[in-house]
Write a structure and sequence with these properties.
Lysozyme-like; about 40% helix; about 10% strand; alpha/beta; disordered C terminus; seven-stranded mixed β-sheet; binds zinc ion
Length: about 270
């Protein structure tokens, strides 16, 4: 009897870290939250949006990939308050592991830094994967994203848009984009058009607005070639470059793949093969 009671107590303690929302299982795994982070959020909101707020009224859900292979490394990356330059660190609200477990890293209505121009109104979902730009998010992650977005849409009636990070330009037609800092932008390919197409198809009829894939392949290749060219200034490993070549081959862009391989070889020679 005592053993049974102890077992039940342990089980209930374990379940306390998890929330069950209409069958959806969310594991609370908060990143470091402090007065300091709140101050950095305020500074970010003031500089980029001219807003005085650390909370958001969610209007969009933005889907990402982490470009890393484990949820632990992604969690570690988001954990601290600052980036190397001392400004607010990047973070998303949710992190989805390869096997589809959903971790909640911050309050759902916190202002997090995950997409230029939309942080003031967007909830971010990071999916573990996409190393070297390879579209490899899993079926379990797709299921988790579908259920999580349904849950968020039900909870926040203000949410109307769902888009991938790479669709940041197309999403400007929503009227949600705000950015006060001139020339502050970055090219993105995550979480890949295969995942976003599947997500759009699975969430049809939910009353959410999606965007078309917006020449993702061309953008992805431009991104890869730019990174390739910048290799002389930033250390990008040969493995990463090989990954880009593989990605171009997967996408059927054989000409681009050949070009990348040749450039990679020349650059490798130039940099003593390092
Ligand atoms: Zn992203």
């Amino acid at each position: 009897m005592i053993r049974k009671t102890l077992f039940l107590l342990l089980v209930s303690l374990f379940l306390m870290t998890e929330t069950f929302a209409g069958g959806l299982q969310i594991i609370d795994k908060p990143i470091r939250w402090s007065d300091f982070r709140e101050q950095l959020i305020r500074e970010y909101a003031a500089a980029h949006y001219n807003l005085e707020q650390i909370d958001i009224i969610p209007k969009a859900v933005v889907v990402h990939w982490t470009a890393s292979s484990t949820w632990e490394s992604a969690y570690k990356h988001f954990y601290n308050e600052t980036r190397a330059d001392g400004t607010l660190n990047v973070a998303s609200h949710f992190l989805v592991s390869r096997d589809g477990r959903i971790y909640r890293l911050t309050p759902e209505t916190a202002l997090n830094r995950h997409i230029i121009g939309y942080n003031w109104c967007a909830i971010g979902i990071e999916n573990v994967g996409g190393v070297n730009g390879v579209e490899d998010l899993t079926d379990a992650q797709l299921e988790a994203n579908v259920e999580l977005i349904k849950y968020l849409h039900k909870k926040y009636a203000t949410i109307s848009y769902v888009f991938g990070h790479y669709q940041q330009d197309a999403a400007k037609s929503s009227g949600l984009y705000i950015e006060n800092v001139p020339n502050y932008r970055s090219e993105k390919i995550d979480p890949g058009h295969i995942f976003m197409t599947a997500l759009k198809s699975r969430l049809q009829g939910e009353g959410l607005k999606f965007y078309e894939k917006v020449a993702c392949k061309v953008k992805a290749l431009n991104f890869m070639i730019t990174r390739m060219m910048l290799r002389s200034r930033f250390s990008i490993s040969t493995d990463v470059l090989k990954g880009y070549c593989k990605f171009a081959i997967q996408k059927g862009r054989l000409l681009a793949a050949s070009l990348l391989c040749v450039l990679s070889f020349i650059s490798g020679q130039k940099h003593g093969g390092k």
